[in-house]
Amino acid sequence: MNKSILFFIFTQHILYMRLVPFIISAILTTAFIYALDRSWGTVPPLGRFLSPQQGFWQNAEPLNYDYSDEINFPSLKGKVNIYFDERLVPHVFADNDEDLYFAQGYLHARFRLFQMDLQTRAAEGRASEIAGSAAINYDKEQRRLGMRFAAENALGEMEKDDLSKAAFSAYTAGVNAYIESLTESTLPLEYKLLDFRPEPWTNLRTALLLKMMAKMLSSGTESDLENTIARSLFKPEQLAALYPQVNDSLAPIVPKGTPFPAPTVQPVAPASADSLYFQSQTGFTQRETDRPDAGNGSNNWVVAGSRTQSGSPILANDPHLELSLPSIWYEMQLNGPGSNAYGVSLPGSPFIIIGLNDSIAWGVTNAGRDVKDYFQIKFKDDTRREYWYNGQWTPTRLRVEEIKVKGGRVVYDTVAYTEFGPVQFDKTFGSPNGNDENLAVRWIAHEPSNEGLTFYKLNRAANYNEYVEAISTFQCPGQNFVFASKTGDIAIWQQGKFPARWKGQGLYVMPGEDSSYNWQGFIPQPENPHSLNPERGFLESANQRAVDSTYPYFIPGAYITPRGIAIEKFLSNMNQVTVADMMQLQYNYFNVQAEMLRPILLKYVDRSQLDDAAAEYLKELESWNLQAEPNSKGQTIFVAWWDSLYKNIWIDDLEKGNGLAPWPERQHTLELLLRDSTNMGWVDDVRTEEREELAQVITKSMKQATTGLNNLKGEGRLEWSKRMRPSVYHLLKQNLLPFARTDLPVGGDGNIINAMKHSHGPSWRMIAHMSALTEAYGVYPGGQNGNPGSRFYDNFIDTWARGEYFPLWIMKKSDAIDRKVKWTLTLSNKNNN
Amino acid sequence: MKFLVAVILTAILAYLGGLILPWWSLVIAAFTGGVLIYQSAFRAYFAGFLGVFLLWSGLAWWADKANESILSLRIAQLFPGPDTAFFIVILTGLVAGLVGGLGALTGHFLRKR
């Protein structure tokens, strides 16, 4: 045979029998690798994710996992000993501040990196990098609210102070030391699921976290835009009747009768206020889309030795926030030179935020004050480069925001900064009506401040004076700092930087064409509401207005009245108080609004008009013990009836505002009913010819409520906890529902001391008995380890749900050999030891 | 016998690769098995599949046992299919097997005379 023919056959053989199948097979293999190495929509990269050596199986922490280790960090000055107890609470012992906060940063990152990373990215307006285009508007709003601007201002202030800068920088170094140690397999689970990577920590990110708290607690406490709609609907006297500054039933934080000194700052309303402001008919339709939960609140109280069995003060605190897994709180003890603090910290920030040390205990609730105002800006033209201010065209500062979007193009947004602050709403964002509605926002959170320093000092404060000194520079979000000391002092301060307003200033959007409507000054810190060792022997705060009407400053806000009434009612009747009493009070289900309203409902309802089902509900309500217990049907019936009555009273009056005007407060509605059965005429449905009486409206409301109650009954959900479905979701909510704990057996409501409201409620319960040997208890609905694959992920939840506590073990260095120490982690610098 | 050697070799190489290389190093392991141990295309594919299937599902099972299925039960609910740990263990093996088999087949074709 011809050689060339042989060669031809041979090559054909190679081509068809070897090369082609090889190429097809190789291409197919590569295609599958590619497909399994990338995420598809919400599906993670399957190959990487399922790999037992690198994927999620690596996060399936063995139940007998050993947290003990010795790690070398060249940036440490000395050696840090960390002792974990059986609840995985670290007790950190360091020889200097830097090492102490390095260790705290390391531990936060080790157990909570994902939440720190996610929350600070979201705070900065970078959620789209993870969530994609659905989050673009959220990101724009964060930036236009000036979140990063605020954090930059705070950072400048933080880094001015050497002590703070050292602490924050050490903390940052600790976080980064952990991030740098991460490998593909040790990456926290959520990164593997969402297919992204942690970013290095910076002091700015700590500032961003604190601004996230500022937004959560002090951005939604104004209703300026909503109020402008109400202003166009009602006469001034009606406005005053519907939206009063002080509730009839208020039990203020500063005990009634406490005298206030004359104000040293007296702001004056501009001459044009009546015509341009109070009587203006302009209603603004822009709305923030991400408004913090109005129920973000808390309880704290302190009982003096005169009322306790032991003769030593007892302090209690339970902050009410959106509950999440991992929890917003991380429990720890920080022991260093001059500091031995125990309590909860915020992953993303150094220091103990709520807790105690060897001499004092402290806790916080939200002040709820309005510290954010809107000013209407007139731009020269669409470029927004100049605005009319004090009689001349004044240049704005334009800040170009670059928003990166997962799976999409970069989005740019230009924000104009004015004398007041960033222009949050303008033609390019959130303003459907065009050019006339440019609204600049001025917010206390924008002011340079160093909130962290307060906690650094509180962690070390030894007495009342040091506590006052520590909190005196705290600006935003305004908090009620409750205090108790071993020497027997009890105190509370509503602390923050608050504008001194003329009466009515900042209730509505203000003219921004000159400085005349701008804030004229701030309430001097010593004039902030406070009380030290009051005669009655206790102090409490629960987001109510801090003071009664005798306080000399105008202080609008979003206040919550009922819990304060209930706490004061119970505490003023308690003597020989014990820790167990305080635990019961934090878990208390008494519905104080129902106590006030039920007699009215029962008095006016026309029983002859009710069907059998409604009559049955009524009977249940009459015999109800007023406790919003998990199995209470009375609470469910009360809430349904009250919801319907509240709606029937106001809906007709607010209809003209297209639902944009604020609803009068519930507690105030109740007070109006107690004052006058016509509810000042508001009970009448203005849309009908007939004049409705309270009896008719109450009966109609019960009938309407019955429909809903019948549905609930049909679903077997008439019991309160089945109606409310108490749940603690993972931070990614519905996206990771299997990581949540749902349908917990707890009761409560926002207006009840045990303020559980679906997924919002007591995020940390603490009781500190300041006896010679401190006795303290605490619990939060979560677990120390943020890893959903750890047995420490949600192991506190059942204890929390039962209203039980863990004793807080304030460890001494000499306890290192104690049986309670389960694991030991040593961080050291080998070069120094 | 050749088949069994190929399975074991693939599993060992895939395990070692997984210690230092990305997850897809299992394909290199299966490919190497396919090149080194010559058998029929079907057997080569199946040896590659089985080697990494056994490795991945075995390691997953081991991790799951130590974790008492805390995490696998949560993950199972995120995926369509039965909400059991067993399902996730098998799914893990199948995903590995899918590319492992193809990798071995590719190796086989390279070697083929």
Keywords:
heterodimer; A: 833 residues; alpha+beta; Penicillin amidase (Acylase) alpha subunit, N-terminal domain; 7-stranded antiparallel sheet; 28 strands; B: 113 residues; mainly alpha; 5 helices; 83% helix
Briefly summarize what is shown.
The complex is a heterodimer of chains A (about 850) and B (about 110). Chain A has about 850 residues and is of the alpha+beta class. The model of chain B has no long low-confidence stretch (mean pLDDT about 95).
In terms of topology, how is this protein built?
The complex is a heterodimer of chains A (about 850) and B (about 110).
Chain A: H1 3-36, H2 46-50, E1 69-72, E2 79-84, E3 90-93, H3 97-124, H4 128-131, H5 136-144, H6 147-160, H7 162-181, H8 189-194, H9 203-218, H10 224-233, H11 236-242, H12 273-278, E4 297-303, E5 314-322, E6 324-325, E7 330-336, E8 339-345, E9 354-356, E10 360-366, E11 372-377, E12 386-389, E13 392-395, E14 397-403, E15 411-417, E16 423-425, E17 438-443, H13 451-458, H14 464-471, E18 479-485, E19 490-495, E20 510-511, E21 530-532, E22 538-541, H15 562-571, H16 579-586, H17 592-604, H18 612-622, H19 633-654, H20 666-675, H21 694-714, H22 720-724, E23 729-730, E24 760-762, E25 765-769, E26 775-779, H23 797-801, E27 806-807, E28 823-828
Parallel strand pairs in A: 1-28, 3-7, 6-23, 11-20
Antiparallel strand pairs in A: 2-3, 2-28, 4-5, 4-22, 5-24, 5-25, 7-8, 8-9, 9-10, 10-18, 11-17, 12-13, 14-15, 16-17, 18-19, 19-21, 25-26, 26-27
Helix pairs in contact in A: 3-7, 3-9, 6-9, 13-14, 17-20, 18-19, 19-21
Chain B: H1 2-20, H2 25-36, H3 41-67, H4 70-78, H5 85-111
Helix pairs in contact in B: 1-2, 1-3, 2-3, 2-5, 3-5, 4-5
What do these coordinates show?
The complex is a heterodimer of chains A (833) and B (113). In chain A, 34% of the residues lie in helices and 17% in strands. By secondary structure, chain A is of the alpha+beta class. Chain A has a domain at 592-724: Aminohydrolase, alpha-helical knob region (Penicillin amidase (Acylase) alpha subunit, N-terminal domain). The radius of gyration of chain A is 30 Å and the shape is globular. With 113 residues, chain B is an all-alpha fold. Chain B is built from five helices and no strands. Chains A and B meet through helix 1 and helix 2 of A and helix 1, helix 3, helix 4 and helix 5 of B.
